[in-house]
Amino acid sequence: MDIDELNVLYNAGYDCSQSIIKAFEKDLGDDFEPLIKSTNGLGMGLLQGATCGGILGALVVIAHKFGNVEPDMSLKGLCMIKREQFFMMFKQKYPGVTCPELMGLDIRNNEDNIKAYQQNIYTEKCPSICLDIIRMVEEITGYSSER
């Protein structure tokens, strides 16, 4: 997956959270459709200036790989360790985890949203961050975003 492919997904209507799920469609198998549907409202920091939707998508994929269905503290612990591994990797490269921290703009504010379009945040910066997220998830899960 590359930035151009991510922009194709964005232009098709997928948000950042769903694009991370879409990158791992092959590995998610029969779980892909319910997962991509479930992440529909997570993009763009929940439009609340909250955690980046790409990160939320990554956590869904990590939990898919390592999470538990029945109560199991060892699996829950493993999933939490993998989640923390992701955050450690992410925080080595980026200053924060919220959209305003990552973009340098608060897109809830109309003027900042206009600036985000003018500065190609949605077509360059966000896809670049999502591409890094995909690479981190690949490393943690062993899943592949190759199409």
Describe this structure in words.
The chain is mainly alpha-helical. Helix content is 67%, strand content 0%. The chain is globular. Helix 2 (16-23) packs across helix 9 and helix 5 (53-66) runs parallel beside helix 9 (121-141). The protein starts with a helix and ends in a 6-residue tail after the last helix. The chain has helices spanning 3-12, 16-23, 25-28, 32-38, 53-66, 73-93, 99-103, 110-118, 121-141. It has nine helices and no strands.
Secondary-structure blueprint:
Elements: H1 3-12, H2 16-23, H3 25-28, H4 32-38, H5 53-66, H6 73-93, H7 99-103, H8 110-118, H9 121-141
Helix pairs in contact: 1-9, 2-4, 2-5, 2-9, 5-6, 5-9, 6-9
Helices, by number, come to 9
Structural classification: mainly alpha
Largest sheet: none
Rg is 15 Å
- Give the overall pLDDT as a whole number: 94
Oligomer: single chain
* Regions with little confidence, pLDDT below 50 for 5+ residues: none
Total number of β-strand segments? Answer: 0
Return the string of H and E elements. Answer: HHHHHHHHH
Alpha carbon gap, first and last residue: 7 Å
Portion in strands = under 5%
Gross morphology: globular
Percent range of helical residues: 55-70%
